[in-house]
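Case 348 in the screening queue. Each case pairs one protein sequence with one candidate compound; here the compound is MRU. For every case the pipeline is the same: read the inputs, emit a complex structure as C-alpha cells, and attach any notable structural observations.

Predict complex for case 348.
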Amino acid sequence: MHEFRSVFLDDQAGELVILDQTRLPNDVVYLRLSGTEDVWEAIRNLRVRGAPAIGIAAAYGAYLAVRHGSPESPEAAAALFRQAKRYLETSRPTAVNLFWALNRMEQRLASRYDSVAQLLCALKTEADAIRNEDARMCHAIGEHALSLLRRGWGLLTHCNAGALATSELGTALAPIYLGTQRGYQFKVFVDETRPLLQGARLTAWELSEAGVDVTLICDNMAATVMQRGLVQAVLVGCDRVAANGDTANKIGTLGLAILAKHYGIPFYVLGPTSTIDLNCPSGASIVIEERPGEEITTKWYCSRMAPQDIKTYNPAFDVTDASLITAIITEKGIAYPPFAASLKALPQ
Ligand code: MRU
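Case 348 output:
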C-alpha cells in the first residue's frame, strides 16, 4: 500500500533506518542511525514518532548499542544493554510502548549466553519480533475496527496513528486503509493537530498517498464538522491506556471526545495491547510530556507567530476520561465500558 517504511534495521550496515518525519510532507528522507545518542535524538525530536514506532526504534537502538560497544563478555554486553535502556527511556515519557519494548528486550538477558554473539542474536530476534508482531497487530486492529464502520461514513482522526507511527498500516488508520481496499469510500477529516501538525504533515500525506478521500481541517473546526453531520465516528490512537480506560493521546484528543459525546458520535480508541498499562490505575498517574514553548511560537514556520518571550504552556498529550470513550479496539478484540473489567478480560 505504501512505499515508505517508517522504521527498520539494516543489520548488515549496523544501522537503524528511519523516515525523518520532521521533513514530511516536503521531503522523503531516510536517516541512518548507529549511535545511541542519535536514536535518542530521533525519538526526542519526533523524527521517529507514534507509540509503536518509538518502541521499535528503541528496541533496535538498544541492540545496536550493545553491538557497537564491542563487549568482550556476555556480562559486559548485558551491562551495555542496561546503560542504553536507561538512557533511551529518558527520550519521551508518555508512550508506554517505549518502556514496554525495552523491558521485553531486557527479559532476554535472563537466559544464559555462552558468547556475546549469542546474546546479540537473542536481542536482535526480540527486536524483530516486536516489529513483526506490531505489523500483525495493526492488521488485526483494522479488521476489528472495520466491523464497527459502515460504507460511505465520514470519519474524523487526530494526530497521526498511521503507517508512519507503526511498522505498517497504523492503528487508527488501519480500518481506513482496509476499508478503502474493500470499496468503503470513507470520507476522512483530518485535524491539523497543532502545534506540530502531525495531522496536516503526516496523516493527510499518508492517506492521500494511498488514495483515500481526505479533507484537512484546523483543530478548531472539528465541532462544526460534527454539528453538520459530516462524521459518523471518531478514530484516534493512544500512547498509554490506564487500567480504568483513561487514555493519553495527542493533545486535543480530550476535546474531540467531549465534542463527540455532545453530538452522539462514537469515539473509538485504537491501539495494540502493548499500549495498555494495567500497572497504571488511572489517567492521573500518566506522565504527560511537556515540550518547549518554541513549538507553539515558532516551530515549523519561517518566522515567529507570537510575541518574543510570551509565556507558553505546551503539554504534548492529554488524557481522555474513560467515560467519554465508546470502545477501545485492540488486536485481541474490542473492549467496551466498564473498561476496568473488559481490558483485563481481553485474551492473553
Ligand atoms: O507526539 P507524537 O506525534 O509521537 O504523538 C503520537 C500520538 O499521539 C499517536 O496518536 C499515538 O502515539 C498512537 S500512534 C499509533
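Case 348 observations:
- The chain is about 40% helix and 15% strand.
- The radius of gyration is 20 Å.
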